[in-house]
Structure formats: structure tokens, C-alpha cells
Design a protein that fits this description.
Blueprint lengths: L2 H14 L14 E5 L2 E4 L15 H15 L7 E5 L5 H14 L4 E6 L5 H8 L5 E6 L8 H10 L10 E7 L9 H6 L3 H13 L3 E5 L4 H15 L5 H11 L4 H14 L8
Parallel strand pairs: 1-4, 3-6, 3-7, 4-5, 5-6
Antiparallel strand pairs: 1-2
């Protein structure tokens, strides 16, 4: 092969290679995303005002206070938000953090795709003079190996998370793991199997439960969104929307507002 031919092959391979991972200024932005070993500023980070999250006042107060302590370099918990889908778990993580920032706290969110990325982030953030929340949305494990590894990161392992970092994890499962009845039945001591499954959830100092909405709760969320965004919402229309969607939740209420605004030719501007 000629030198020119080899150079063309090398150039072609360079074009096929993925671009270098992005690196953002960790002091400059309210939120980031971690992907492929690089960190980038989150675009259009605009969480809902925390007051718009209706029916979860206890959860709001607890999480805002926890993030406020963390931003002030005080003792704060890792947080598990568990419960019904569409009930506001993910929205609350972001809205509570944004509220603390509005109150003057310097704290940033980092959206993390998988728990496998945590050691690299711990190494990157550990010596940085800022407080961070690592957000793992909809986390769940089908087996116990990954859960045991995450447990060691949260508490007592060689690569335990640094003091300026806290985790916020959302899950539809209260204990992050499915209850394996067969495993429990075959265990020499069934209680040991249960304890092993529950041990990960126990590592979170603050666990907030979210439950399915009744009709009044769903309509209250619709009304709050409608008033905030100046959208005409009809009670019967909103209920029919929920029936067609097969559930009542904050997510379904928001989807109804989007649909009602679209039918009226409106854009959803924040007020």
C-alpha cells in the first residue's frame, strides 16, 4: 500500500470516529447532561414552578428543604422518589432544585443515563467547589448484582460518592427491585433474601412516596395548569381525556392542557 492510500484510510476512520466528549464549565450552568463520558450544559432547563405541582405538598417541602441544606454545604440525604407513574416524581426533582436556586442556593443538576457512569462522575466532581445532584430517572434492576454495586457506591464502598454530590433516583418500584417470590421460597432463610432486596432502598436517607390520584386531585392539577397558562379547560373534557388515556395523573393533566391549548391555537407561554 502507498503512503497516500494509508493516509486516506486513516482520514476515513477519523471521520467515522465519534466526536470527542463535550466538556462544559461546571461553575456556569444550572443543569447538565452526562453522556458518553462527557458533560454538557442542559439546553432549555426550565422546570415547572414548584407551586404548580399540586397534591404533593409534603414531598415538595421535604425535597426543597433537603436541596436547600445541600446547597448550603450542610448535611443532606440521597433521595429516592418512588410510586405511581406520571405522579410528578421527575418534575419535583427539577422544580425543587430550581426553587432553591431562585432562593440563592448554588446547586446544579446532572442528568445521568445509567448508574454505571457514577464512578466517573464522582471522580470528576469530588474536588469541585460546588454542590451537585445526580439525577437517575426511572431506575430499576432486574437482578441483584447491579443493585449491590450501587449500594457500595452509596454507602461504605471504596468508591463512595463525594460529599458535594447527592443522588436523586426515581422509580416506579418502592424497593427498586422486583420481589422474586421463587428466590425467597428457595432461600435457606427467606428473610435474608428479602433483606438483600430491600437493602438498596434503605441506603436513601429520604424516601418520598407518590400515589395514584383520585378524580378531584386530577381536576385540581388541570385547573392549576389552566390558570397558569391561560388555557380554557372544561371539566367534562378533562375527565374524558383521562378516560381515553386510561389513568389520572399529573402527566395526563399536562397532556390534556397541551391538547386544549393546541385546539385553541395557543402557545404555552410561562406567566
Amino acid at each position: 500500500m502507498t503512503e497516500d492510500y494509508l493516509r486516506r484510510i486513516a482520514d476515513a476512520l477519523d471521520r467515522l470516529a465519534p466526536p470527542p466528549a463535550a466538556t462544559a464549565d461546571l461553575a456556569a450552568h444550572p443543569a447538565y447532561v452526562w453522556r458518553r463520558g462527557g458533560i454538557a450544559a442542559a439546553r432549555n432547563f426550565a422546570p415547572l414552578p414548584v407551586d404548580l405541582l399540586i397534591g404533593i405538598d409534603r414531598q415538595k417541602a421535604a425535597l426543597v428543604e433537603n436541596w436547600r441544606r445541600h446547597a448550603a454545604w450542610g448535611a443532606a440525604h440521597d433521595v429516592l422518589l418512588w410510586g405511581a407513574r406520571g405522579s410528578g416524581k421527575s418534575a419535583l426533582v427539577k422544580s425543587a432544585l430550581a426553587q432553591v436556586r431562585r432562593d440563592g442556593g448554588d446547586i446544579a443538576l446532572i442528568d445521568v443515563a445509567t448508574h454505571d457512569d457514577l464512578p466517573a462522575l464522582f471522580a470528576l466532581l469530588g474536588d469541585f467547589d460546588r454542590r451537585f445532584v445526580l439525577f437517575l430517572d426511572d431506575l430499576g434492576f432486574d437482578g441483584t448484582a447491579g443493585a449491590r454495586w450501587l449500594r457500595s457506591l452509596l454507602d461504605g464502598g471504596a468508591e463512595a460518592r463525594p460529599d458535594n454530590v447527592r443522588l436523586a433516583v426515581t422509580s416506579n418500584r418502592r424497593h427498586l427491585l422486583p420481589r422474586d417470590i421463587a428466590e425467597q421460597a428457595s432461600a435457606i432463610n427467606p428473610r435474608d433474601a428479602v433483606d438483600d432486596q430491600l437493602a438498596l432502598a434503605d441506603r436513601f436517607g429520604l424516601a418520598l412516596g407518590f400515589h395514584a390520584l383520585d378524580q378531584d386531585g386530577y381536576l385540581a392539577i388541570v385547573a392549576a395548569y389552566a390558570a397558569h397558562y391561560a388555557v380554557q379547560a372544561q371539566r367534562d373534557d378533562a375527565l374524558e381525556w383521562a378516560i381515553r388515556r386510561g389513568s389520572r395523573s399529573g402527566r395526563v393533566a399536562w397532556q390534556y392542557i397541551v391538547d386544549a391549548a393546541g385546539r385553541a391555537g395557543q402557545r404555552l407561554h410561562d406567566h
